[in-house]
TrEMBL record, chain A:
PANTHER family: DIPEPTIDE TRANSPORT SYSTEM PERMEASE PROTEIN DPPB-RELATED. The keyword Electron transport does not apply. Residues 110-340 form the ABC transmembrane type-1 domain. This is Peptide/nickel transport system permease protein. GO terms for molecular function: dipeptide transmembrane transporter activity. It is a multi-pass membrane protein. It is found in: Cell membrane.
Automatic annotation (TrEMBL), chain B:
The keyword ATP-binding applies. It is found in: Cell inner membrane. SMART domains: AAA. GO terms for biological process: peptide transport; transmembrane transport. CDD domains: ABC_NikE_OppD_transporters. Belongs to the ABC transporter superfamily. One of its GO terms (cellular component) is plasma membrane. It comes from Kaistia hirudinis. Keywords: ATP-binding, Cell membrane, Membrane, Nucleotide-binding, Transport. This is Oligopeptide/dipeptide ABC transporter ATP-binding protein. Its main location: membrane. InterPro entries: AAA+_ATPase, ABC_Ni/Peptide_Import, ABC_transporter-like_ATP-bd, ABC_transporter-like_CS, Oligopep_ABC_C, P-loop_NTPase. It comes from the Bacteria.
UniProtKB/TrEMBL annotation, chain C:
It comes from Kaistia hirudinis. CDD domains: TM_PBP2. Belongs to the binding-protein-dependent transport system permease family. The lineage of its organism: Bacteria, Pseudomonadati, Pseudomonadota, Alphaproteobacteria, Hyphomicrobiales. The keyword NAD does not apply. Its main location: membrane. Residues 93-277 form the ABC transmembrane type-1 domain. This is Peptide/nickel transport system permease protein. SUPFAM superfamilies: MetI-like.
């Protein structure tokens, strides 16, 4: 034991950090499966009637077969073990609505959502950080006040309503936005590699398709980004104010460096580390925001899938979606922490 | 020493700061100060006396909302204290600054090499390689072991004393004529302090540097300064050669500060603390701001703000009573 | 390191403060928010006296554009949109309030238990909070609603499940901070039990941040409930709920007034809550405000 402990501390700081973070990430994923199991198996009353039709549920033989198949006749710990085993094999059950395995459905819809959320995240980071930095520099003066109102409006506007209004204005009235969906009606998708149309079109060198896919993603991504822009702006302002007040920023100014350098290199860099962490958390909220945006823009992603499943009271499908989103959330945050460790010399070099 | 051509001369410097309730408060109320070439001038005073603000005004680094008046002469140039842009040209090139806490004054995420050279490259318009060479020489001069390797390392990998040496090297790498050192040893261990003070003394000799040494610690002052200014409530109350001022203080406040020192008290009086505490900015008493704490105070002290007046060649105090003139050494 | 950094040590020390740094009531944005909220609550209370029509009365032709008689026009079955928007406050505000109260009570209790006992109990509760926060709120709420059936109250229950952790975190960190304050330490030295010290010394200090958090979360509660109703999982027609009104209106795309006005109502309420909450947060002691992230 002491030998183990000794060799643990003999490891480089960064490696220790990475191992610890991966371990915590794995534990959290396990926890996620447990919560998900508890919600699907325990909460919703009788899973038999929930999963079988009324007629099938009244047939004792079918019910018994169903219970045996899903291990419902066994105690809870065994059920959880079975659930985990099915999960490892990618079995999330069958969607009542599409009559296909939930895993198949998810793998079909997930890329569209990842594409949309990533585009929105890029927008939110660029705009949010810029506004936040401006606000911090102009602290308590009018640009700061205006940016404050803008960012509060961003976190206050109902996404689904904004989606409708912008679609109405830009498509219906002004005619500058393309219609709903990922491509024009009848448009041919680029060769399937990642199933993110903008990236696939680029990889295939299909510039026209890329342009169309990009024009379709701009409006939904912008709407999806609004909330996150607001929160990143507020957070960036706070982080910048803190780092601008540090001695090392004053020292940088005393060295006669131009204001631009002081702000971008000396003040923003440490703030950025904190901002990226917050952005990782915001990504989770963004993924769930896709439910509201995708249904307005007919974006064929997991948000719309979850929405249709919820209307059909298709519990397995929804839990599949939330399991996937939760795992993505944890993975993204883990990745952010690891990036942070590589950026910050205090962790990297110990 | 007074005959030397002053490198820096501050005339009638005033600084006011915005207050929380929207008003303004005077923090520095007419300060004159000069530093000769190669001279180390100590600026002493408790917190709130305006010593750090006065130094920051020279660099144009006052906090937002501060208003300044008066003139600053630097190496033959005349700058209005109110115009922050003129001072910006001095920053880093002609005047450098070292801060109190080396733990926080070095950027935690930039390498030592980057922090040593970024302003050098900017001010001198030279290439990286050349800047690296100058920086390594300077690190060697401040006795950083293995300076070439140190360039690639980060501040957290050095001890406090080493960091302060790096901060000083980074300040001096551009060859400034004046170094402003704000409490450069306060945050360090006593054993390390002496090393930093010796280093400043050595650099002054080798680089013909002028130093403005800001401190509340008269012990630090006595080790290093040629001349001393003592500030209280935004005004200079005593100025003179270090040996004179510390051995025979003429202003009751200077005397109080010295009496409060745990050792080396020059007087036959027992060790005493100054009664009361220094007034906060915006709450300076009328007349001589020191009078509520002064055991020699008379009516005139409550009525008029005393002017700094010469009492000996090179020696001035702002005290109309001058009760200590007869006290023997 | 201090907040807002006196750039220099000579800067006058601010007056010593505890939880509130400066009066939130001198900030224009906070005043606007508070005034808006008061007006909206008054509108909700006095709705029957403010409009001539009930929320589900058919009072005119379908799809009448906004006019002097029907300020916000009429909807697809001839109901007065203005009346429905005003009455909508009677639906959204109470449910959002319920949500905030339930989540804050549960979160406060769990946070206090975690902070008070520490050790593995603390670890367990806070890891559970991490887990719950990993789940996407709307989607999890959709799952609960799918299991329990659509309806605003079920939606509220669902969102409580995912929104208690933020309260737990804030209360726990406040307790950890305050527990080490000299005045709490000294009362413990005087023989006051920890539980009593928590109640006497900690409770008043936790109330401020909790109120701020509740104000910020209130806006979020209105948004998420409206979102669920928009998806058809919350309030059911013909209830005059803003989210479902936007959803119904979106079917008649060229009749913009059906969706625009209820959406504006949501925006106004949430904006008011956020103006107020944000101003109050700024007034908090910076050490406290940190726990909010």
């Amino acid at each position: 034991m002491t030998y183990l402990r000794k060799s643990w501390y003999a490891l480089p700081n960064l490696l220790r950090f990475v191992v610890r973070r991966l371990f915590v990430g794995a534990l959290l994923c396990l926890g996620i499966t447990f919560v998900s199991f508890a919600l699907t198996q325990v909460v919703p009353g009788d899973p038999v009637s929930a999963n079988l039709g009324d007629r099938a549920a009244s047939d004792p033989e079918i019910v018994a077969a169903f219970r045996a198949r899903y291990g419902l006749d066994q105690p809870i710990p065994q059920q959880y073990a079975l659930y985990l085993e099915r999960l490892v094999h990618g079995d999330l059950g069958e969607s009542q609505q599409t009559h296909r395995p939930v895993t198949t459905d998810l793998s079909q819809y997930l890329p569209a959502t990842i594409e949309l959320a990533s585009a929105a995240m890029i927008l939110a980071l660029v705009i949010g950080i810029s506004l936040g930095v401006l606000a911090a520099i102009a602290r308590d003066r009018w640009p700061d006040q205006i940016i404050r109102v803008i960012s509060l409006a961003g976190v206050s506007v109902p996404t689904f309503w904004l989606a409708l209004v912008t679609f109405y204005v830009f498509f219906f009235k002004l005619g500058i936005a393309p219609g709903v969906g990922r491509l024009n009606p009848g448009g041919k998708a680029p060769p399937s590699i990642t199933n993110m149309f903008t990236i696939d079109a680029l990889l295939a060198g299909q510039w026209a398709t890329f342009g169309i896919a990009l024009s379709h993603i701009v409006l939904p991504a912008a709407v999806l980004a609004i909330y996150t822009i607001g929160s990143i702006t507020r957070f960036t302002r706070a982080a910048m104010l803190e780092s601008l007040s540090q001695d090392y920023v004053r020292a940088a100014r005393a060295k006669g460096l131009p204001t631009r350098t002081v702000i971008l290199r000396h003040a923003l860099r440490p703030a950025l580390a904190a901002i990226v962490t917050v952005a990782g958390m915001a990504f989770g909220r963004m993924l769930s925001g896709t439910v509201l945006v995708e249904s307005v823009f007919s974006w064929p992603g997991i948000g719309q899938y979850a929405y249709k499943s919820a209307l059909a009271l298709d519990l397995r499908a929804i839990m599949g979606v939330s399991l996937v989103v939760a795992v993505i959330y944890i993975l993204v945050n883990m990745a952010v922490d690891l990036i942070y460790a590589f950026i910050d010399p205090r962790i990297r070099l110990g | 020493m007074a005959e030397r051509q002053p490198l820096l001369a501050i005339e009638g410097l005033t600084i006011s700061l915005p207050t929380a309730d929207g008003g303004r408060a005077s923090a520095v109320r007419g300060v004159d100060l000069s530093i000769g070439e190669g001279e180390i001038v100590g600026l002493a005073g408790e917190s709130g006396s305006g010593k750090t603000l006065s130094a920051l005004a020279v660099l144009g680094l006052l906090p937002g909302g501060a208003k300044t008046g008066g003139m600053i002469h630097f190496a033959g140039r005349e700058l209005s204290a109110a115009d922050g842009r003129a001072q910006a040209e001095l920053r880093g090139k002609d005047v450098a600054m070292v801060f109190q806490d080396p733990m926080t004054a070095l950027h935690p995420m930039l390498s030592v090499g980057r922090q040593m050279t970024e302003h050098l490259v900017f001010h001198r318009k030279i290439g990286r390689a050349e800047a690296d060479k100058i920086a390594i020489d300077m690190l060697e001069r401040v006795r950083i072991p293995n300076p070439r390797a140190a360039m690639a390392r980060f501040p957290h990998q050095f001890s406090g004393g080493m960091r302060q040496r790096i901060a000083i090297a980074s300040a001096l790498v551009t060859g400034p004529k004046l170094l402003i050192a704000d409490e450069p040893t306060t945050a360090l261990d006593v054993t390390v302090q002496a090393g930093i003070l010796r280093l400043i003394e050595q650099l002054r000799r080798e680089l013909k540097l002028s130093v403005l040494l800001i401190t509340h610690d008269l012990g630090v002052m006595s080790a290093l300064a040629d001349r001393v200014y003592v500030m209280y409530a935004g005004r200079v109350v005593e100025r003179g050669a270090r040996a004179e001022v510390l051995a025979r203080p003429r202003h009751p406040y200077t005397r109080g500060l010295l009496d409060a020192l745990p050792h080396g008290s020059p007087s036959d009086h027992p060790l005493t603390a100054l009664p009361g505490s220094p007034p906060a900015i915006g709450r300076f008493p009328a007349g001589c701001a020191f009078h509520p704490r002064c055991r020699f105070a008379e009516d005139i002290c409550r009525a008029d703000i005393p002017e700094l007046r010469d009492v000996q060649p090179g020696r001035a105090i702002a005290c109309p009573v001058d009760p200590l003139s007869a006290v023997p050494a | 390191m201090s907040d807002a950094a006196p750039l220099v040590e000579d800067v006058p020390a601010r007056p010593r403060r505890r939880l509130m740094r400066r009066s939130a009531w001198t900030q224009p944005l906070g005043l606007v928010g508070a005034a808006l909220l008061v007006i909206i609550v008054l509108l909700a209370i006095f709705a029957p006296w403010l409009t001539a029509h009930g929320p589900i009365d058919q009072v005119g032709r379908r799809f009448m554009a906004p006019s002097a008689e029907h300020w916000f026009g009429t909807d697809q079955i001839g109901r007065d949109v203005f009346a429905r928007v005003i009455y909508g406050a009677r639906v959204s505000l109470p449910y959002a309030l319920q949500l905030v109260i339930m989540a804050s009570v549960i979160g406060t209790l769990l946070g206090a238990i975690a902070g008070y006992f520490g050790g593995w109990i603390d670890g367990f509760i806070m890891r559970a909070a991490d887990l719950v926060m990993a789940f996407p709120d709307i989607i999890l709420a959709m799952a609960v609603v799918a299991a329990l059936g659509p309806g605003l109250f079920n939606a509220v229950l669902a969102v409580v499940v995912v929104s208690w952790p933020i309260y737990a975190r804030v209360v726990r960190s406040m307790i950890l901070t305050i527990r080490d304050e000299p005045y709490v330490q000294s009362s413990r030295l005087l023989g006051v039990s920890t539980a009593r010290a928590l109640w006497v010394d900690v409770r008043p200090n936790v109330m401020g941040p909790l109120v701020v958090l509740a104000a910020l979360e209130f806006g979020h509660a209105v948004l998420i409930l409206a979102g669920l109703s928009f998806l058809g999982l919350g309030a059911q027609p013909p209830a005059p709920e803003w989210g479902s009104m936007v959803s119904e209106g979106s079917k008649y795309f060229d009749k913009w007034w059906l969706s625009v006005f209820p959406g504006l109502a949501i925006l106004l309420v949430v904006l008011a809550a956020n103006f107020l909450g944000d101003t109050l947060r700024d007034a908090l002691d910076p050490r406290t405000a940190k726990a909010f992230r």
